[in-house]
């Protein structure tokens, strides 16, 4: 009988917990790392730790696969430096010092590493000259490039789903008037975030050669006005208030590399994903 594979998920928040359940269902031994492990599902082996404090790593298990899936505790440069740069550096150092023989480390990154903002198509080989917190996310990716451990970064964009319903709630409340700047937006349903990470682990386990980076977005980049108009029609509302939007970035992220690997989306576009949310609120 083949040895049971194992997976250590560092940062078991929403996406990490969804992934942990998926990997458990696929027969993996799964450990979940978070500050408060009491919040983990019962089938996941809990590990209480703070990724920014190396001395808390002492009880961590040896696993075939490691997924770094943390979230910054605060939306600031220092918050992102602690979570992504310092935390990932600590993890890589521990893996290398203790000779964990990790088969692959997956790092959850973001499309914020791309600086393009004039409707360009971007692929995993596009230039990355970010500003703000994108700099910290790219700095973390650069740590992977220096590691001797096989690594893959997944750049997610516009994660939505149950509990991540900001745009849906805005449109339902009457917000949705888009100004002259009508950017392209990229999205990924949170179930597909977990699905992509699980698929990459499965493919690696089968001996498939993975790339060092994948764009984790669905099949349909769309103008913000298109998404808002569709939501308003489905909700039978007519937005009259300006939609607030912090970012003016406008780019189209290509998921072709992921498609060519064979991943099949549960929610291939925003309509499939939001329709389920709308149905639940009716």
TrEMBL record:
Annotated Gene Ontology cellular component terms: cytoplasm
**Database matches in InterPro entries:** Epimerase_deHydtase (IPR001509), NAD(P)-bd_dom_sf (IPR036291), NAD(P)-dependent_oxidoreduct (IPR051783)
The record's GO molecular-function terms, alphabetically, read:
aldehyde dehydrogenase (NAD+) activity
An example of a Pfam family matching this protein is Epimerase
Task: Look up the coiled coil feature and give its residue ranges.
Answer: none
Source domain of life is Bacteria
**Name of the protein in its database record:** NAD(P)H-binding protein
């Amino acid at each position: 009988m083949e040895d049971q594979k194992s997976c250590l998920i560092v940062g078991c928040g929403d996406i990490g917990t969804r992934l942990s359940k998926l990997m458990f269902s696929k027969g993996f031994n799964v450990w979940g790392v978070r500050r408060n492990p009491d919040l983990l599902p019962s089938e996941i082996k809990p590990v209480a730790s703070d990724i920014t404090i190396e001395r808390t790593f002492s009880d961590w298990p040896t696993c075939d696969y490691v997924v770094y899936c943390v979230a910054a505790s605060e939306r600031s440069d220092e918050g992102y430096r602690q979570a992504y740069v310092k935390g990932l550096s600590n993890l890589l150092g521990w893996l290398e010092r203790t000779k964990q023989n990790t088969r692959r480390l997956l790092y959850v990154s973001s499309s914020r590493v791309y600086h393009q903002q004039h409707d360009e198509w971007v692929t995993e080989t596009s230039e990355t000259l970010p500003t703000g917190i994108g700099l910290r996310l790219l700095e973390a990716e650069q740590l992977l490039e220096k590691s001797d451990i096989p690594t893959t970064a997944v750049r997610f964009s516009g994660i939505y789903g149950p509990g991540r319903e900001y745009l849906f709630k805005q449109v339902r409340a009457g917000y949705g008037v888009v100004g002259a700047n009508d950017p392209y937006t990229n999205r990924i349903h949170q179930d597909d975030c977990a699905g992509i990470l699980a698929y990459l682990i499965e493919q690696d386990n089968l001996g498939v050669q993975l790339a060092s980076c994948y764009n984790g977005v669905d099949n349909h980049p769309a103008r913000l006005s298109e998404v808002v108009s569709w939501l308003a029609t489905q909700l039978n509302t007519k937005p009259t208030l300006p939609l607030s939007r912090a970012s003016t970035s406008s780019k189209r992220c290509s998921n072709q590399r992921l498609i060519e690997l064979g991943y099949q989306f549960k929610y291939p576009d925003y309509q499939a994903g939001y329709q389920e949310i709308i149905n639940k609120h009716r």
